[in-house]
Structure formats: C-alpha cells, structure tokens
C-alpha cells in the first residue's frame, strides 16, 4: 500500500445511486434489470431513488444480475481504514 494514493476528489453516492450507476454501466434499463431479477421495475425505481431500502436479499439478487459483489451496492462509500498490525 506504499504506492497507493487516494484520489483528491471523491463523490458520495447513496445505495440507490450505486445501483443506478452499476446498472447504467452495463447498459441495462430498469425494465431489463426487472426481467433479470424478478424485482418489479417500480421497486427498482424506488431503490434507485432511495424511496425503498434495498435489503440483504434484494442486494444479493441485484448483485447477481449486475455481476458485482453485494457490498458494491450496499456500501458504496465505505472505506477500509489502514490498520496497524503488530
């Protein structure tokens, strides 16, 4: 980690925004994601607009369809703090 430099600018995103970003990067519409997951499009819209909480099971289903780890969706702003191990 000695060569690691944190980016000077960061962007805070919500859980819903992270779902939308990953979906759009994969060029999927909400309707297409709904078909892949079985989650209604209206629920996906609610998640992306932070009106509906994602929940663990939905996070797993969405992550499978979006080919990412559920943590990418659930913890978008989480940073691993460097710890000192003796």
Radius of gyration: 15 Å
CATH topology of the domain at 15-74: 434 Repressor (Amino-terminal Domain)
Strand % is under 5%
Q: Give the beta-strand count.
A: 0
Judged by helices, strands and strand pairing, the structural class is mainly alpha
Helix fraction bin: 40-55%
Please identify which CATH superfamily of the domain at 15-74 we are dealing with: lambda repressor-like DNA-binding domains
Query: Under the CATH scheme, which class of the domain at 15-74?
Result: Mainly Alpha
Provide the CATH architecture of the domain at 15-74.
Orthogonal Bundle
* Model regions low in confidence, pLDDT < 50 over at least 5 residues: none
How many helix segments?
A: 5
End-to-end C-alpha gap: 16 Å
Q: How do the helices and strands follow one another from N- to C-terminus?
A: HHHHH
Main pleated sheet: none
Mean pLDDT: 88
Shape: elongated
